[in-house]
């Protein structure tokens, strides 16, 4: 099954060219390793409006099946990714958020400090990931098995819908 991904890196320093966007590249590699495609990428500062602009554009135009954001999910004052994502979500997916935080305890004791959220807008699944490359890889690894079924359900594609 082909899944189209959009990856948005949210980082003031990467946006200003002060730091390389490693997390975005890691996520691109992981998507391609699963034989899926990255059709959109974006790099924005830690600001609500630019984050929302890309999410709105990509979901309204139905250009991607999954949007992975990375960065801005912690406690720092400029970490606003959940606040930017929240008003755009039409249906929240708290089970995924709970699963990720619970399983992340296997990697770090700081897992409960994540404010990342996930949900659905139109027929696109949106998932906030951490900006740390190692953490982004770990979280993607936790949910990778869920993505084909989730996308099939969102796009109303049999056979997933028939038995659901």
CATH fold annotation: Molybdenum Cofactor Biosythetic Enzyme, Chain A
The strand order across the widest sheet is: 2-1-3-6-5-4
The tally of strands reads: 6
N to C succession of SSEs: EHHEHEHEHEEHH
How many domains? The number is: 1
What is the mean pLDDT?
Answer: 95
User: Helix coverage percent of residues?
Assistant: 25-40%
C-alpha-based Rg, rounded? 15 Å
Q: Assembly type of the shown chains?
A: single chain
Query: How much strand?
Result: 15-25%
Strand pairing plus helix content: what structural class? alpha/beta
Largest sheet: 6 strands, mixed
CATH class: Alpha Beta
Task: Output the number of helix runs.
Answer: 7
Distance between the termini: 18 Å
Notes on the protein architecture:
α5 (94-104) packs across α6. The protein is globular. It has 7 helices and 6 strands; from the N terminus they run βααβαβαβαββαα. The chain is of the alpha/beta class and 164 residues long. Helix content is 39%, strand content 20%. The two termini are 18 Å apart. The chain has a single domain (4-154), classed as MoaB/Mog-like domain (Molybdenum Cofactor Biosythetic Enzyme, Chain A, 3-Layer(aba) Sandwich). Strands 2-1-3-6-5-4 form a 6-stranded mixed beta sheet, with helices on both faces. The mean pLDDT is 95.
